[in-house]
Write a structure and sequence with these properties.
The structure is a homodimer. The first copy, chain A, has a 3-stranded antiparallel beta sheet. The longest helix of chain A is centred in the first third of the chain and has 14 residues. Chain A has a single domain, classed as Orthogonal Bundle (Arc Repressor Mutant, subunit A). The first copy, chain A, is an alpha+beta fold. The model of chain A has no long low-confidence stretch (mean pLDDT 89). At the A-B interface, helix 1, helix 2, helix 3 and helix 6 of A face helix 1, helix 2, helix 3 and helix 6 of B. The first copy, chain A, binds a DNA duplex through helix 4 and helix 5.
Chain lengths: 106, 106
DNA sequence: AACATTTATCGTATATTTACGATATATATA
DNA sequence: TATATATATCGTAAATATACGATAAATGTT
């Protein structure tokens, strides 16, 4: 999708551009089997670190890190540095917002 | 993502494989600005036809048709042939299931 | 039957995503 | 300070997604 098209779409919406984009980014982020699995894993094991997640998944550490970045950029997840490791959690407030918005929109 | 990886993931889930895949496909389908817009449009104008949707969007008819196919494959939308046109609606039952599943999972 | 209208599909170019190994960065420990 | 450990980033190859024009298919109309 070109920027031109994105600009054309960014007019007259019920959500503000920022919220709308974030909402769509959340859908996109969770619309991948690996990232969906990561979300479930963090739900089950809040505060798990990257190594835990890597062990749980059939892909390389570098790829896990890339997927984590997508989830972070969608503001679904936050990583807190704890010593040499990073602990990951869902951002409960934003997951709640997503759930509420899903209910509200559809 | 390779098929090998998809197979590795398809084990020991809370949702059945079919439901899990459908749930993720729904996220993916709605995780695109054009398709999200289409969903909102159909919500607002149930039974609108392809021409309506094309008029509402800044992309070619062929591309709209492709996006509609993705939404249909995710079982979010159904098209009913009505004369030479096709009328599109959200599949309320499945949207409801999606909403319920979002509440249940997260 | 011929034609007009509407939508889907085909072929294809380009952009984006996904995956990996290699390497950089950052912190804890010896 | 040197080393080990954990995670992020870089470069890149391959797969997938997105967009388009051209054209096929399906239906209504003359």
């Amino acid at each position: 999708m070109t920027n031109e098209i994105k600009e054309k779409l960014a007019k007259n919406k019920s959500l503000s551009l920022t919220e709308r984009e974030r909402f769509i980014a959340m859908f996109k982020a969770m619309g991948n089997p690996i990232r969906y699995e990561m979300m479930e894993h963090m739900l089950k094991y809040p505060g798990c670190n990257t190594a835990n997640i890597v062990d749980h998944l059939p892909i390389a550490q570098a790829t896990v890190s890339q997927h984590l970045k997508v989830l972070k950029e969608a503001e679904l997840v936050i990583g807190e540095i704890e010593g040499p490791a990073t602990c990951y959690c869902l951002i409960d407030e934003n997951v709640k917002w997503f759930k509420e918005t899903v209910q509200k929109i559809f």
